[in-house]
Design a protein that fits this description.
alpha/beta, 9-stranded mixed beta sheet, 5-stranded antiparallel beta sheet, 29% helix, globular
């Protein structure tokens, strides 16, 4: 068993809005959130006051403890206000990908039993359609403004009393992001107030922040990585978060230059752009002190190229998953030069790890031996919403969460993730469940069978690669027709990027798809 070398932290038994904004008054007029596109700035005092007013308005509208509010928005300075207002009113927040189709959104609404939606006006049509399909949605609110819908801006004028909700941090769910886990279709991950808040305290000694620090929030807040690293963590410690709605390289570089960004939390495709794109040389990035990459594997050579080009310490990596609130490993910012190339870091405080054999179930492996990574700690999820069997398959009776990732640790405790047992595809950090795409492909009238695996494109991104068996009587469909069929029915990040036609999908006697055989053809 591997244990963290860092001192344990006590559980943080606070509602997440108090754990993050408890010192907002002390930070006062310091900038908390800045819109990187138009410069709109909210101070800590304003964030604290505004989210309390919106919470009062939500409570007056009928939001009650136990309700679920769906937050469907790209990154804006209003996103944190909506999140903390909802939790202060007693609701759990299920975050929704802004590019989700109406059908995908509706499935999440129905599964989570969400009664409220907060969105932005450009996404209203999708939100309305999803609400119609799911049923049970009481009201759709907007962050900005739209005819016929109440806005958070209007709610700031509420004179209703601030809600005083009795929250049990150990049991009450604060966030309900959706994850495919090790396989299958997306499931609601129940993360309690205590789990999220304690994970922030676990991470703080290794990746500290302070007033005067500036981080650039280009990774989405709806994703647990962005929610933690770019919203909860910096706002808890008095740093300034500069918000961008999406990744556009020149806009991103201009924001670093103009706002004097000191820290970046990114995914590997952004590291690739920083390392290789010629336009990077046109901007002054001298304010940067560090870069942390997570959400997907980062090639050690690419990380080194990025740090050399920018004159920075080696790019640090971190590891975790939605079901872990999300962090378990990170390269400490004060030890970036000491981390072996390719390592995702060391165990954070209060966290234990086992590496177990892939061929002899339950057998523990030692230093340098590769096996499945198991994690135990206070940040492990409460479970999957409404899916006790899936929860039991993920977390064993001794409290060990089976990540589905394959890795090994060296004698100094540095972890290296080398493969995945699980079938999940990570496209630019976003989770794509092969089972979901396979089910969709089988609805095509000329497809007899299908299997989807991850394959790597020329930029090193893992992409969905469909292996399709045509019906015997079919003359089509073509590769482009298959890709279009899927693209019309899923969010852009789930699109099939490659198609191979095969005679039969290889399967075990149990019927399980033999994906390793297909990866050999990818």
């Amino acid at each position: 068993m591997f244990r963290s070398q860092y001192a344990d932290v006590p559980p943080v038994d606070l509602p997440i809005h108090e754990a993050v904004l408890g010192r907002a008054a002390a930070f006062g007029s310091a900038p908390a959130l800045i819109d990187g596109t138009d410069g709109t700035t909210l101070t800590y005092e304003q964030v604290d006051r505004f989210h309390r007013r919106v919470a009062a308005a939500l409570a007056e509208a009928g939001v009650r403890k136990g309700d679920v509010l769906a937050l469907h928005s790209p990154n804006t300075v209003a996103f944190p206000l909506a999140f903390y207002a909802a939790t202060r009113a007693g609701a759990s927040v299920t975050t929704v990908h802004p590019l989700a189709t109406a059908d995908e959104f509706a499935k999440q609404l129905a599964d989570a039993r969400a009664r409220w939606i907060v969105t932005v006006s450009p996404l209203l049509d999708t939100a309305r359609r999803a609400a119609e399909l799911a049923g049970g949605v009481q009201e759709i609110l907007v962050c900005d403004s739209a005819p016929g819908h109440r806005s958070l801006i209007d709610m700031l004028a509420s004179t209703a009393p601030e809600p005083r909700i009795a929250i049990d941090p150990a049991e009450d769910v604060a966030a309900l992001p959706y994850s495919s886990g090790t396989t299958g279709t997306p499931k609601g991950v129940m993360l309690t107030h205590r789990q999220i808040a304690t994970n922030l305290a676990q991470l703080e000694p290794l990746v500290p922040a302070a007033p005067g620090d500036r981080v650039l929030a280009v990774l989405p807040f709806f994703h647990i990585y962005g929610l933690t690293a770019l919203m909860n963590a910096p706002l808890r410690l008095g740093a300034t978060v500069v918000v961008l709605p999406r990744f556009d390289l020149e806009q991103f570089l201009a924001a670093i230059q103009n706002h004097r960004i000191t820290g970046l939390y990114v995914a590997p495709p952004i590291v690739l752009a920083l390392a290789k794109h010629p336009v990077v040389a046109d901007y002054d990035l001298s304010s940067l002190k560090y870069i942390v990459s997570a959400a997907a594997p980062l090639d050690a050579r690419l990380a080194a190229a990025c740090s050399r080009r920018l004159g920075l310490p080696p790019v640090a990596q971190a590891y975790g998953m939605t079901e872990l609130s999300p962090g378990t490993h990170v390269v400490p910012l004060d030890a970036m030069a000491d981390a072996p190339p390719g390592s995702v870091g060391k165990l954070i405080a209060g966290t234990e790890m086992r590496i177990v054999s892939l061929t002899e179930p339950g057998k523990d492996l030692g230093t340098g031996e590769a096996g499945e990574i198991l994690i135990r700690g206070p940040q492990i999820m409460k479970g999957y919403l409404g899916r006790p069997d899936a929860t039991a398959a993920m977390i064993d009776e001794d409290g060990w969460l089976h990540t589905g990732d394959v890795g090994h640790a060296d004698a100094d405790g540095w972890l290296f993730v080398v493969d995945r047992v699980k079938e999940l595809i990570k496209y630019k950090g976003f989770q794509v469940a092969p089972a979901e795409l396979e089910a969709l492909l089988l609805t095509h009238p000329d497809v007899a069978d299908a299997a989807v695996v991850g394959a790597y494109d020329d930029d090193g991104n893992e992409v969905p690669h469909a292996h399709v068996v045509r019906r015997p009587t079919a003359t089509g469909p073509s590769e482009s027709e298959i890709m279009m069929y899927v693209a019309e029915r899923v969010a852009p990040y789930k699109r099939v990027r490659r198609v191979t036609f095969i005679d039969a999908v290889p399967r075990a006697a149990s019927g399980k798809i033999l994906r390793r055989e297909l990866r050999g053809t990818a």
